[in-house]
Amino acid sequence: MRVNGNEAPLGKDSSLKSFLLREGYDIGRVAVERNGEIVPRSRYETEILDDSDKLEIITFVGGG
To answer: Residue 64's pLDDT is what?
Structure first.
């Protein structure tokens, strides 16, 4: 699987939510595009990833 242009191991549990948590992302502060389509946060737990997927993960940062 490719994440932000880099190879990433998929791992044993292949839901998007599990992947994000395992990689240290704050689910409340990211947007995810999977194979060119935005994944709604409500589907993170049921979205099953595949080795052929391409993810783009954007992290929102607060500040002023």
So the answer is: 62
Q: How many CA atoms lie within 13 A of 8 on its CB side?
A: 21
Alpha-helical regions (H) of the chain: 16-22
- Work out whether strand 54-59 and strand 2-3 pair parallel, antiparallel, or are unpaired: parallel
Q: Are 1 and 20 in contact (CB under 8 A)?
A: no
Every domain of the chain and the residues it spans: 2-59
| 2-59 has CATH 3.10.20.30 classification | yes
Residue 35: the pLDDT is 98
